[in-house]
Amino acid sequence: MTGLTLSSADLDPRRRRILFRCWHRGIREMDLVFGQFADNELPNLPEADLDELERIMAEEDNDLLKWILGSEPTPQHMQTPMFERLTSYKPDFEEIAERFGLTK
To answer: What InterPro entries does this protein map onto (predicted)?
Structure first.
């Protein structure tokens, strides 16, 4: 859960670009959510799902993090099956922080 596990070697250029963007979001928590999702689902996503994923990825990371963690309600335009699939990859961030001594 700490980095890329899917090789981009067998992916088409669009999927390679998406895979890179999923693991390089700018906020580590979002790297974990998007990266794990991409590693597990990206190779088999149809084009329409790739379109939806790219729309989601265009949102601000800080907003996405709040919606995924549930600290703010998810706006109507984000209440899609793809967003639900993506949020199912949310790790237990409190457990991770505790394991690495990042809690106060």
So the answer is: SDH, SDH_sf
Give 28-75 pLDDT, tens digit per residue: 889 999 999 999 999 999 999 999 999 999 999 999 999 988 889 999
**Radius of gyration in angstroms for the set of CA atoms belonging to the chain, rounded to a whole number:** 14
Per domain, the residue ranges of the chain are 13-99
Give the integer Cα–Cα distance in Å for 18 and 28: 16
DSSP, res 95: H
Q: Model-level pTM?
A: 0.80
71-87 per-residue burial string, b: 16 or more CB within 10 A, e: under 16: eeebeeebeeebbebbb
